[in-house]
Design brief:
Layout: H1 3-12, E1 31-35, E2 70-74, E3 76-77, E4 87-88, H2 94-108, E5 112-118, E6 124-128, E7 130-132, E8 161-163, H3 168-177, E9 183-187, H4 196-210, E10 222-228, H5 234-257, H6 271-280, H7 305-314
Helix pairs in contact: 1-6, 2-4, 3-5
Length: 319
């Protein structure tokens, strides 16, 4: 259930009705897909894997935090003798990554994609802006050493840039607010490295561009890549990934909500939305929850009386 809708219903003291959860392969899914490669990016996403061998404690992605989205993670494992390629989903290999990508996305039908990979030997959370349809890539570890075909995307010329559509500045801001010892920042000036990280990152933004239009039955509205520092622990990585998800879910709700102020995405701005608005008010200079972005009309991080004025103008009442 939409979190803001839930808040409004509780506030208004009315009876809620159960809403069926979306799962991979369901009609109009609200599924978010995460991928990892080398540690810590596989371990930090483990709770979102539906594979019982990878996640014996059980999948925690169903209707995650009551936000109305199911989270699915896919990543390789590295038992003895398999480093650096690994085994399972998305082995660190060009051909395996491509061969896994399309069947998995066809099953999950993600509305959003975040790909993760290991970055520098530090405590960074580097949000990449630029992914290129490269002709030339760094060799991987087994023949054939390069993507086949190369460039991978035949629909656009070689070296075409497909940028991230994630809310990159908001992610960096929110992750830094957690004070986890990470340095979260956006990389605007460089590419993704020309290796498997940029390769899977390109697949993510490529998929989003293919399925961007609202008429697409399996619309995907946002995608991007994050490099995670080698020294980030799985626990810290999980916390940062969860905050990243909260920000991205807020973005998805705004992109799919359509009508400004329509917190429950039902096509109007009514008293239910007003009830949700009141729970989001921070006052001037405050920091609104990620769920409350639909009410931050002036994009200044708070929800205050300026936003209330805009909400009044947007108010339609129930149909």
């Amino acid at each position: 259930m939409n979190t803001l809708r839930h808040r409004a219903i509780v506030f208004a003291s009315v009876i809620t009705l159960g809403i069926g959860l979306s799962h991979a392969g369901a009609e109009n899914p609200h599924n978010i897909m995460l991928t990892g490669y080398w540690p810590p990016t596989n371990d930090m996403l483990r709770k979102f894997s539906t594979n019982p061998k990878q996640n014996p404690d059980g999948w925690e992605g169903e209707d995650w935090e009551g936000r109305g989205y199911d989270i699915y993670a896919f990543f390789p494992e590295f038992p003895d003798g398999t480093w650096p390629i690994g085994e399972g989903d998305f082995e660190v290999d060009y051909q395996d990554t491509s061969e896994d990508w399309w069947p998995i996305t066809a099953e999950v039908r993600p509305v959003a994609i975040i790909t993760f990979s290991r970055g520098s030997s530090d405590m960074s959370w580097e949000i990449e802006m630029n992914q290129f349809n490269r002709l030339n890539w760094i060799a991987d570890f087994e023949r054939p050493f390069f993507p086949t075909p190369s460039p991978p995307d035949g629909s656009v010329p070689a070296e075409t840039l497909r940028p991230s559509s994630l809310p990159v500045e908001d992610i960096a801001f929110r992750v830094n607010l957690l004070h986890l010892g990470l340095t979260a920042f956006v990389c605007y000036d460089h590419d993704g490295g020309g290796f498997l990280s940029e390769f899977i990152a390109y697949h993510g933004v490529w998929y989003r561009d293919i399925h961007l239009e609202p008429e697409d039955e399996f619309q995907c509205v946002t995608a991007g890549h994050i490099h995670v520092g080698e020294f980030v622990s799985p626990r810290v990585g999980t916390l940062a990934a969860e905050e990243t998800l909260r920000v991205v879910i807020g973005q998805i709700n705004e992109l799919l909500g359509g009508l400004p102020g329509d917190g429950d995405s039902d096509g109007d701005v009514d008293l239910f939305d007003f009830a949700a608005f009141t729970t989001c008010v921070t006052g001037p200079g405050g920091l609104a929850d990620t769920d409350c972005g639909i009410f931050n009309f002036d994009d200044d991080l708070d929800v205050d009386w300026t936003d209330f004025g805009a909400f009044q103008l947007a108010f339609t009442g129930a149909p």
